[in-house]
Amino acid sequence: MITNIQENIIPYIGETTPFFSIPENLKFNDHILETEILDFDFQNKNFPEHCKVFSSLGSCNLYRIINDTSLKKIYFLGETIRFRKLSHKTSSSVFVTCESSLESEMKGKSVILIKDIHSREMLYSFEINHYIIAEEAFKHFYKNFYHDDSITAYDKSLPESRISEIKSENRFNISIKPFTPEQCKGHFENYPLVPFAFIGDRILKEIFTFLGDKYSYEIESMDGYASNAIPTGKEIVIEVFHQKFLKDLFYFKSEIKDASGTSYGTLIFNIKSKIKE
User: Fold this and answer.
1) 149-198, pLDDT tens digit by residue?
2) Confidence band of 54 (pLDDT split at 50, 70, 90)
């Protein structure tokens, strides 16, 4: 089984830097990938960045399990994503495991567990189901997204977003200006698609704006379901339904669309409030 990441895995994964991001000190224990992160900061503002890292770990481990010898790229596209907060404890140093499995030739699953580095208490779980697409098939499926010129510049900023309409007591819309290929560099080379993590970043920004600053808030869970690839160059409209389930728990269901009504997927967040310290 492949173990040399830099030479035998990373060059053959569809995602590239800067989107593809993994810690340096990866170790393999049979079919489980292990690593330590010593500056782990799970504040809300860092949540999408951690999703990016965990997704990259899943792609890396799935490629290793596939043990492909064709030397052609394989693309891993997220179908569903699930995040759960498992403890109220926090830690700045964590031990991370990624266990991956193949469900078929075209589907794989990765379960990432984030634990306290000392006690091994589980803090968070992250699960992602991937579509596994060979290079030629990917180029055929996404030929309309192809850009002749390689994207050389990287723009790490994200488009402006705003709450554009309050539709009712439990519904509001978020408008996100078009993403550029430079903002989506690495996802994927010559075929820029908007990552769900970036959409999640903009949604969370506006959800926390909506909630205000009277209390502090923590993300308890997230469920994501992708239905279509999100192109660059299109304004995105998020239709949000929200409800207060408990005294301190808020539910937000966000339907991702464009101005024409094309649906791209759904992100669901459960967010807990607490009195500021």
Assistant:
1) 888 899 999 999 999 999 999 999 999 999 999 999 999 989 999 999 99
2) very high
CA distance 85 to 272: 11
Contacts of 66 (CB under 8 A, 6+ apart): 74, 102, 108, 132
Average pLDDT of the chain, as a whole number: 93
Cα 153 to Cα 185: distance, rounded to the nearest angstrom:
8
Q: Is the pLDDT of residue 4 over 80?
A: no
pLDDT (tens digit, 9 = 90+) per residue, 85-136?
A: 999 888 889 999 999 999 999 999 999 999 999 999 999 999 999 999 999 9
Strand extents, DSSP E, 105-235: 107-116, 122-134, 161-168, 171-176, 216-226
Measured in whole angstroms, how far is the alpha carbon of residue 86 from the centre of its chain? 19
Q: How far apart are CA 206 and CA 181, in angstroms?
A: 23
How far is the C-alpha of 67 from the C-alpha of 1, rounded, in Å?
6
- Whole-model pTM: value is 0.94
Beta carbons of 267 and 200 less than 8 angstroms apart = yes
Q: What is the length of the chain?
A: 277
Order of all β-strands in the sheet with 161-168:
27-29, 32-37, 94-104, 107-116, 122-134, 74-85, 216-226, 263-274, 249-258, 236-246, 171-176, 161-168
